[in-house]
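Schema walk-through. Below, the input block comes first and the output block second. Nothing else is stored per chain. Lengths vary across the set, and this one has 272 residues.
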Amino acid sequence: VGAPCRNAMADAGVRVVRAKEGGDEGGGSGGGGGAASGAGAGGAGADSAVDVAARAAAAADATTIVARAVPLRAAKLVHFVRHCEATSNAAAAIEGRSAYRKPEHLDARLSPAGVEQAEALRARVVAERPAVDVVLVSPLTRALQTASAFEGCGKPFVAVEDLRERIGVNMCDKRRGIDEVRDEFPHVDFSGLDVPDTRWTEDCRETEEEIIARGTAFLAWLLKRPERHFAVVTHSSFLLHTLEKSGVCGDDAEVGKWFENGEMRSVWVSPP
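--- output ---
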């Protein structure tokens, strides 16, 4: 990706730094412990992420690594999740990437292995209780099924069109009609989706520049939302282009590296 793409996030005013595995804040959606208590004071005296990291290191919590100093009061804690294994992923492992174009994988569902991964993710969420104020999820079925891991948080679910996988050509990335999906996932707010779906086309696939721009727009929109703690359930190519190929993570390769199916990675997102 050329320099214009790598500078896209910087131009949009977004920074991403690493949080410890499972998130820096525990105690559920109330944002009770960890860094949230430092930010709760607000005002000029609020701690920075570096201050929090230093105290954590002093307490021998070596899993917190901060790449840049950001004011915690301005940062958003985001738990990025790649959907669990879909039937299209399982087929592609055997048949190659051409499987993604097959009609039987339209808006692909989780495979049996993917269902097990989703249950494991649910158990992790229950055990770690990551701070979550809202669950933002791709409207594709495999992501909606994966997002069910956060149902116990008791927070709203919102489908976001910009969180879709790289759009076009592949049938697994073409979503079903809103009415059909809403019937299966009645707890999700689908009011912000395009009706009908005008984004997917069978002969044109989104370019790297376009998906980076979409990721930029999503993070800028997220920063303007009132919530502070987010679960974001999305797709591998969206995550790769938004977090790694855009250059938003700087030199911290761990933040933007490839997500495996069902992986959850927690980061701080902030304005510059």
